[in-house]
Specification:
Helix content is 64%, strand content 0%. α2 runs antiparallel to α3, α5 crosses α6 and α7 runs antiparallel to α8. The longest helix has 21 residues.
Length: 278
């Protein structure tokens, strides 16, 4: 992707500023992203395989942000068909985002997403080239939401496949991070208060003093979704997931103790956590 296209996308999407936007401004931004991505596809400016997938992914993501499941579904059909035309390593790309999944489920497309996940698991080999986006897919799959009706057998299936992924990637440098995310997802999905996740979180505390890295890629690019997260990013994301999972099952005291302890080592204040925990 050219830097000019990336810069224009980030300008339209208000990358890094979205939380400061009003609801109306966010909607305008999402529609603008859809228009721009569609223009790139129709005009032929997006010709590379990865560039087209980036466009499809962000059209779906914008419809997810707008809570428009029918439009998301129609675009995702095109996305999946296009991905299937290329190398099998890209099979996880259309199912790598939780918000897109939740929006599809809200519109009655739970089986559609489940079938995509199952097909990707069965046909896409996890290799050095795609294991990070495979993790993103498993995390999205095992995520649950109280307002959504997700069949228990599907959750069990996602749990088993995520577990298999964890077991088969023990030598990866992100293994501990992946396991922390997996256990946090289990706590919420199965309301398990017997998983003492605090000890594992404590093993990450020292990395909170390390420097973060800034990616040059845009959200939705293969290189963004499949990137190596910095040690600090892994720690912040992992501990945040653990804290929220404890809150979700009513363990606010444990969540607050973990949150306060992590902040002693440099864990940042989290507005969402603050709203839920105090």
């Amino acid at each position: 992707m050219t830097q000019a296209v990336r810069d224009e996308f980030m300008r339209i999407k208000h990358t890094g500023q979205r939380n400061a936007l009003t609801h109306e401004e966010k909607e305008k931004s999402d529609f603008s992203v859809i228009e721009y991505m569609d223009l790139l596809l129709r005009s032929g400016k997006a010709t590379d395989f990865k560039d087209k997938c980036f466009c499809f992914w962000n059209i779906s993501d914008s419809y997810a942000m707008l809570r428009k499941p029918d439009e998301l579904y129609k675009n995702h059909l095109k996305f999946v068909e296009y991905v299937s035309m290329d190398d099998k390593i890209y099979g996880f790309w259309p199912i790598s985002d939780c918000t897109q999944r939740f929006t599809l489920i809200s519109g009655g497309y739970e089986n559609f997403w489940h079938d995509l996940y199952k097909a990707a698991i069965e046909s896409t080999s996890v290799t050095n080239e795609n294991y990070r986006i495979a993790y993103e897919t498993h995390r999205a799959a095992l995520s649950v939401h109280s307002d959504l009706d997700i069949p228990h057998e599907h959750i069990e299936y996602y749990n088993n496949k995520f577990s298999e992924f964890i077991d088969s990637n023990k030598l990866r440098e992100e293994y501990n991070f992946y396991k922390l995310i997996f256990l946090s997802a289990q706590i919420k999905a199965f309301k398990r208060n017997d998983i003492y996740i605090e000890d594992m979180c404590a093993e990450f505390f020292e990395t909170l003093g390390s420097k973060d890295t800034v990616t040059v890629y845009a959200v939705g690019e293969w290189e963004y979704l499949n990137r190596l997260r910095s040690k600090r990013n892994q720690t912040v994301v992992g501990i945040t997931a653990a804290i929220n999972s404890l809150i979700d099952i009513g363990e606010k005291k444990r969540a607050l103790e973990l949150y306060n302890e992590a902040k002693k080592y440099g864990f940042p204040e989290n507005t969402y956590v603050n709203k839920r925990i105090y």
